[in-house]
């Protein structure tokens, strides 16, 4: 039996019931694909439902303020996805007169849409036979065919795309693409796949050579940099605090945070107190300093690890530009600050 038919047959029996599988609307498919980049289904599903509820059409998403979109995205991480989502909604609405691109080539013009996302939308919504290649597909194909080319190399990217394109069912591209992704997600899992009920064991090279854990092959990535973030949580005598918007490129762009003092290593109480005394918001006023988390919070990003401390500064005076503490939750903040807000009792 052909690979494509076998995996489509498997999918017809085993696929999960998910809301974006009940529609061919390109807006909803695009929305789901952007949310599910770097995100598992169980985490992404409530966000998808929230976006559909708040912005049932692309026009409503385009009309939203970026801060509202970022707030709704809060907790998903990789916030450039949300900014690109919003920018593309405006592009479709204002430049394309609300008509969503209906082919792979034109879909690539949307900000934040690359080969994978364009292939998914083109095949699912418009029946274009262009193969998807995501982490699940890399894993399935590398194991079944025993491919040792690193998936994070330019050679690997081309090799797997060509192979997936050869395998795709030209008459059922939507079913094939969804089937191979679903197979990787729930059957050919990264850890402890249930190979004994897999329909592909007979021809799977990794299984037959007892090398499941060796695939897919990846080039070693650069070691993540360590950064030391010290957030200063000011609390004034009128129960207000300070949030600052992160400007420019980099992590958490356009999100809000407490004033940040970055150090080149973990800092102790006395050394940090000296830094705070000279902070522009203190200006030699009396204050009390306490460390909220004795144990540093390590927040891991793809290219850097943030060693984070929250320092509470209580002032006997008011602060210029402060906001009422009860309004903090109106602002879009990084997940590490969101977690702090949930646990700290102002």
UniProtKB/TrEMBL annotation:
Residues 35-186 form the HhH-GPD domain. Its cofactor is [4Fe-4S] cluster. Its EC number is 3.2.2.31. InterPro entries: A/G_AdeGlyc_MutY, DNA_glycosylase, HhH-GPD_domain, HhH_base_excis_C, HhH_motif, MIG/MutY, MutY_C, NUDIX_hydrolase-like_dom_sf. It is an enzyme of class 3 (hydrolase). One of its GO terms (molecular function) is oxidized purine DNA binding. Binds 1 [4Fe-4S] cluster. It comes from the Bacteria. GO terms for biological process: base-excision repair; mismatch repair. It catalyses: Hydrolyzes free adenine bases from 7,8-dihydro-8-oxoguanine:adenine mismatched double-stranded DNA, leaving an apurinic site. Keywords: 4Fe-4S, DNA damage, DNA repair, Glycosidase, Hydrolase, Iron, Iron-sulfur, Metal-binding. The keyword Iron-sulfur applies. Adenine glycosylase active on G-A mispairs. MutY also corrects error-prone DNA synthesis past GO lesions which are due to the oxidatively damaged form of guanine: 7,8-dihydro-8-oxoguanine (8-oxo-dGTP). Belongs to the Nth/MutY family. This is Adenine DNA glycosylase. It comes from Pseudalgibacter alginicilyticus.
């Amino acid at each position: 039996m052909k690979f494509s038919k076998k995996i489509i047959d498997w999918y017809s029996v085993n696929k999960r019931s998910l809301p974006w599988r009940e529609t061919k609307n390109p807006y909803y498919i695009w929305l789901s694909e952007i949310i599910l980049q770097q995100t598992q289904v169980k985490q992404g599903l409530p966000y998808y439902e929230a976006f559909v509820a708040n912005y049932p059409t692309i026009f409503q998403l385009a009309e939203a303020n970026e801060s509202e979109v970022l707030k709704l995205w809060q907790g998903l991480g990789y916030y450039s996805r949300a900014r690109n989502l919003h920018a593309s909604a405006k592009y479709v609405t204002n430049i394309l007169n609300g008509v969503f691109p209906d082919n792979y080539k034109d879909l690539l013009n949307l900000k934040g849409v690359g080969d994978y996302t364009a292939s998914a939308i083109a095949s699912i919504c418009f029946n274009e036979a262009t193969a998807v290649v995501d982490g699940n597909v890399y894993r399935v194909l590398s194991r079944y065919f025993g491919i040792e080319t690193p998936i994070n190399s330019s050679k690997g990217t081309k090799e797997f795309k060509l192979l997936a394109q050869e395998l795709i069912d030209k008459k059922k591209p939507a079913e094939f693409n969804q089937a191979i992704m679903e197979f990787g997600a729930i059957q050919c899992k990264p850890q402890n796949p249930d190979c004994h009920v897999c329909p592909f064991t007979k021809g799977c090279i990794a299984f037959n050579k007892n090398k499941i854990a060796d695939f897919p092959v990846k080039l070693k990535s650069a070691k993540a940099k360590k950064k030391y973030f010290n957030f200063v949580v000011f609390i004034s005598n009128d129960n207000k605090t300070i949030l600052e918007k992160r400007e420019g490129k980099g992590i958490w762009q356009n999100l809000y945070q407490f004033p940040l003092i970055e150090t080149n290593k973990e800092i102790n109480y006395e050394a940090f107190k000296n830094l705070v005394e000279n902070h522009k918001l203190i200006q030699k006023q009396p204050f009390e300093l306490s460390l909220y988390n004795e144990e540093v919070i390590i927040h891991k990003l793809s290219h850097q690890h943030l060693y984070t401390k929250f320092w509470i500064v209580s002032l006997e005076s008011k602060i210029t530009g402060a906001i009422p503490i009860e309004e903090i939750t109106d602002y879009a903040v990084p997940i590490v600050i969101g977690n702090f807000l949930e646990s700290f009792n102002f």
